[in-house]
Specification:
By secondary structure, this protein is α+β, with helices and mostly antiparallel strands. Helices cover 32% and strands 32% of the residues. It has one domain: 2,3-Dihydroxybiphenyl 1,2-Dioxygenase, domain 1.
C-alpha cells in the first residue's frame, strides 16, 4: 500500500488545496520544506500527497543514514513517468467540475479490458489516476492476486507463442 507520494508543482499551495478538496481532507504547509505543502486525506491509511515547488527535487542525504534533502534541480522536467493511482471519496462528476474550474485536463480512460481510471492532469503536466467510488471496485477486482497471476500468465504465454 502506498501511503504518500511527493510531486512537484508550479503552484504548490494551489495544487495542495485542489488535491485536499478531492481527497476530502486538508491542505497544510509541510514543516521543514519552505514553499511545500501537504494534501492530507485524513483517512485511516494516512494517505497524503506532498507538493513541492517545481524546480526542486529530493536528493539522498550526504552521509550514511542521513535523511533526504530537498534541493534546487536545474534539469527539472514539466513531465515525468511518475504517477499514482489514488482512491478518492468524491464522484467522477465532482472531479470533472474541479478539473474544469482549474483548467486542467481530465479524462475517463479504460486500461484495456481491465479497469477504468480518471486521468487528472495536475497543472496539465503531472498525471494522477483517480478511482472514485464508482470505479474502485473494478480496479480492486482486477488487482486481486489471482486475477493478476492469470493476466501475467496470459502475457507470458502470448510472448512465448510469438517467439516460436
Amino acid at each position: 500500500m502506498i501511503h504518500h507520494i511527493s510531486i512537484a508543482a508550479h503552484h504548490p499551495l494551489r495544487v495542495s488545496q485542489v488535491l485536499a478538496e478531492i481527497l476530502q481532507g486538508q491542505s497544510v504547509p509541510f514543516p521543514g520544506y519552505p514553499g511545500s505543502y501537504v494534501a492530507l486525506a485524513l483517512d485511516p491509511q494516512g494517505t497524503m500527497v506532498e507538493v513541492h515547488p517545481f524546480g526542486t527535487a529530493l536528493f539522498p542525504g550526504s552521509e550514511v543514514n542521513a535523511p533526504s534533502q530537498l534541493h534546487p534541480n536545474s534539469v527539472g522536467s514539466n513531465h515525468t513517468a511518475i504517477h499514482a493511482a489514488i482512491s478518492v471519496p468524491v464522484s467522477q462528476s465532482k472531479i470533472q467540475a474541479i478539473a474544469e474550474r482549474e483548467g486542467w485536463r481530465m479524462a475517463h480512460c479504460q486500461r484495456g479490458d481491465y479497469f477504468d481510471v480518471i486521468e487528472f492532469w495536475v497543472e496539465n503536466q503531472m498525471l494522477l489516476e483517480f478511482l472514485p467510488p464508482e470505479l474502485v471496485t473494478q480496479y480492486l477486482t482486477f488487482m486481486e492476486p489471482r486475477s493478476l497471476q492469470q493476466v501475467a500468465q496470459s502475457i507470458v504465454h502470448s510472448l512465448q507463442t510469438a517467439e516460436i
